[in-house]
Specification:
heterotrimer, A alpha/beta (385), B alpha/beta (267), C mainly beta (65), A: 385 residues, alpha/beta, eight-stranded parallel β-barrel, 38% helix, 11% strand, B: five-stranded parallel beta sheet, three-stranded parallel beta sheet
Chain lengths: 385, 267, 65
Amino acid sequence: MSGLSIIPPHRVFKGERMSFLNEVDRFLEFDVHDYLAGVTLDQVAVSLNKPVLNRFDFLNLISPAGKSFIEETAQRARRETIQYFGRTIGMYAPIYISDYCVNGCVYCAFNARNSFKRTRLTLDQIEDECRALAATGIKHTMLLTGEAPLKTPLDYLEAAVKIMKQYFASISLEIFPMDLEDYTVLNRAGADSLTVYQEVYNRKIYREVHPWGRKADYTYRLLTPERGADAGFRSINIGTLFGLGDLYQEVFLTACHARLLEKKYPHVEIGLSMPRMQKADHAISPRNILSDFQFVQFMTALRVYLPRVGMSISTRESAPFRDHLLHLGITRLSAGSKTDVGGYSMETGNETFQFDISDNRSVDEVTAMIRTNGYQPVFKDWDCI
Amino acid sequence: MNKNSGIQNTADPLSLGGQIFNSRLITGTGKFSSRSLIAPMLEASGSEMITVALRRVDAGAEKKNILSYIPENTTLLPNTSGARTAEEAVRIAHIAKAAGCGDFIKIEVITEMKYLMPDNYETLKATQILSREGFKVLPYIMPDLTIAHKLQDAGAAAVMPLGSPIGSNRGIKMEEIIRIIIEGIDLPVIVDAGIGRPSQAAHAMELGADAVLVNTAIATSSDPVQAGRAFAMAVAAGRMAFCAGMAGEKCQASASSPLTGFLRESA
Amino acid sequence: MEIQLNGSIVSISACNMDTLVHEQGLDPRSVVVEYNNKVIPQREWEKTILCQGDVVELLSFVGGG
């Protein structure tokens, strides 16, 4: 099996801690499609009945043979999720404070070469956004920017976090990767979580779609979740942007990455998202489309493989689809989201959004839907004392 | 054909402290009715590592050293039994090494004398000190994932969670926690204490333990040589079953698709 | 001369470690000697001169699990 052992080799030597950087190439070299094609129905059944799954069991669940077991996988995903998280759904919404960006991501509307009127909120405007979003009842938020450290330097971000902290119980950073020391500053200022998507784990495609700019550094980005955990964030969210790379290789690498983080940082909550790429203005189209069926097969398999990992679904997904996913193992839903800078409090007239919102329901509407389905919406499950 | 074929598996060796072992059964030298049984027990079981302890000599104690009963090619695993603090364990480790026992040391610190539960806190402290000094440390612990992680960070060569209270022969009562430790850390996990029958040793190996340590059950059986071989076979069988990936108990699948039916409607 | 031997204060006539081990009736091959917190190999026993107040542990490997 191309040197990929089921039983992890005991790689940890004195003084040397594991890192995903040491493993990523081993997983990338593994021929996922060759393996998936050989999976039998019996193998899927065996994997599905194991108390604890290994990475090959995960692959079995996402294989073509695994399609026949999608209902059984979903049943188990639901059971495990209720066991670990109860019938609760965490509510959150993002705040975009700047769309300046120095990167050349060929799939993103914020691409530096895409010309549109860029905005960076003043601290007062950030406070207006906080006030407007907090009024909807949201208590967990995410702070988002493009990658432009000169426009949004550390002291600006630190001040932004401190303002947000007055309005929200939990702040997750979804900004450009930073050094450990900078994360420590923002963590002390009140940000408790970090979200950073690798976008694509395949090194060749990563180079193609990040041709220049700070983001072109694959390794620095890959190690960001580990720097975040070392800096003291209590929750780390990762993911791949489905559409850039091969769907199966990417979900496999995502699962392995999450597993390693969970193992290396037992005190940190690891979370996953499964963003599906949309065609943005002046950007490339998705190279591979993740169908709804594959989305559910991947999501439920991730859930069964990693039952303690959180799973967030953003408003990129449509309202009916999100309503179905509620029963399949998601733990967090965003609601009432605006994905443009100043979207909550300003008459922006913005035409450039990071992604188009498919689920336009208000926080109250999503909350009512969650209750109707027998789950409890949770606005605040964390508060740093 | 090697007489240990079938119970030693050279294709699936155990790497422990940088050393390769073909047997996943570690044995002990305590409680034998006759110490001359140790060598034939090792021969029959294929066990390549055995524990010894260090004590003050009493006048009138048996003259011959236990080491003279252990074949040369066996790796010695001195333990720190009798230690009640990290400092005492460290001292015993130093003496054992100076006396020629090699780099392996099983840390055993016990302060609770009714059930003889290991003191995880003192054990961690001793592991931190001895790992830094270059010992290959095998700490005997009450199963606890947090301690296992800290031991891993401290440089332990393995962790040795107890299966049930020492000498109780009750098997793997700590199953759920041991399973979590096996899943959660990247060090070999050696189940120590409480294994009274070969089926219990197989059980530990089926869970994914990397090795087991069995002393009392072999030493106090009517025929330690046969018992040693029986344990070796059980350990090999349990390991093989783990590697083969046994099917679990079946959960009932339902005919209808209440959760995923919407995917077919839309397809 | 009094030394601390295996935890007890005892009066001895032996002046070096080799003599002490023999006086205790022990087989030298089976004994580990710790002298003032340091292990002394057998070849150095004879030149290890005992003094008033020394701490000596005579140890041996025994069966254990």
